[in-house]
Design a protein that fits this description.
alpha/beta; Rossmann fold; three-stranded parallel β-sheet; 10 helices; globular; binds glutamic acid
């Protein structure tokens, strides 16, 4: 699908940024449609970005299916579509900047070690990182690296917040209710997040923030499940001197069992609904959106 990019610096820029590691469901449809409609209503731009840094789980077949599902829903996006896996070196450059500020450290811990030592969980429900590798001496780090022990790079959150030196917040709008407020960010609750994974020189947090800045995204509309991540994103934007977008987090769509939809349940996919005879208008009704734009 092709749309001509109008390069007006004051134009709002929206994006839908799915990860091709499963089939899209109605929750994704709501996200994509809200972004697309908001771009239409504001004479803004609508981008599609493929977030495929998880090389073990991303599949080309899912990328093709994303294009098919979104075209079927009637969405039009600008070309070329950015695929994160093609830009790993750019993310590595941003990681290097954080490292040069003295804000990162290598973490050699395994998942099991973290789970065994954690005393709580982060906002995503994962075991909180207990800070094990933060105080490793240079000699221990050199030894582990020389042994070939794989390592991730973590952000020293306390040091990052000290460097920023002021509380962070973000502007949150509710696209459906239409209200707007300033929300305080609470990044400390995330602890020392991973900035570069063991297998790739980036992480979800780093590449999403990098790309939104690079692509001039002004409005981020995504599900409530990513609300808490905004805390980390504000930290990275502040450290890397990226502009601050406006945020909107939409309701999640629940399945008939009352649970959040999951990519792992093919019966809930847009493809299955389409093949079962649903129309785009049915999907719009199912996600309780106003029809038409
Ligand atoms: N790629 C993320 C996902 O599919 C969404 C990223 C975002 O909207 O910030 O969950």
């Amino acid at each position: 699908m092709k749309a001509t990019a109008k390069l007006d610096m004051t134009q709002p820029v929206f994006r839908f940024a799915p990860s091709p590691n499963g089939e899209l469901h109605c929750g994704h449809a709501l996200s994509a449609l809200l972004n697309f409609q908001a771009a239409r209503h504001t004479d803004g731009r609508f981008l599609l970005r493929i977030e495929d840094i998880d090389l073990g789980r991303a599949r080309d077949a899912y990328v093709d299916q994303i294009f098919d599902d979104l075209s079927w829903l009637g969405l039009i996006w600008e070309e070329p579509v950015r695929r994160q896996s093609e830009h790993m070196h750019e993310y590595a450059g941003a990681v290097d900047k954080l490292a040069a500020m003295g804000l990162t450290y290598p973490c050699f811990c395994t998942r099991q070690e973290i789970a065994a030592a954690a005393s709580g969980s982060d906002p995503d429900g994962a075991p909180s990182y207990p800070g094990t590798c933060r105080h490793l001496g240079e000699a221990a780090r050199r030894k582990a690296t020389a042994n070939g022990t794989p390592f991730a790079l973590r952000l020293d959150m306390a040091a990052a917040l000290t460097r920023i030196g002021r509380p962070l917040s973000f502007r949150k709008t509710d696209l459906e209710a239409g209200d707007e407020k300033q929300v305080q960010a609470d990044p400390a609750r995330w602890g020392d997040v991973v900035i570069a994974r063991k297998d790739v020189p980036t992480s979800y947090h780093l590449s999403v923030v990098f790309d939104d800045a690079l692509q001039g995204v002004t409005h981020i509309v995504r599900g409530m499940d990513l609300f808490a991540s905004t805390d980390v994103h504000r930290v990275l934007q502040s450290l890397l001197k990226f502009p601050e977008p406006v945020y909107s987090h939409h309701r999640l769509i629940l399945g008939e069992d009352g649970r959040k939809l999951a990519k792992s349940r093919p019966s809930q996919s847009l493809r299955a609904l389409r093949e079962g005879g649903a129309t785009p208008a049915d999907i719009i009704r199912m996600v309780r959106l106003e029809p038409g734009t």
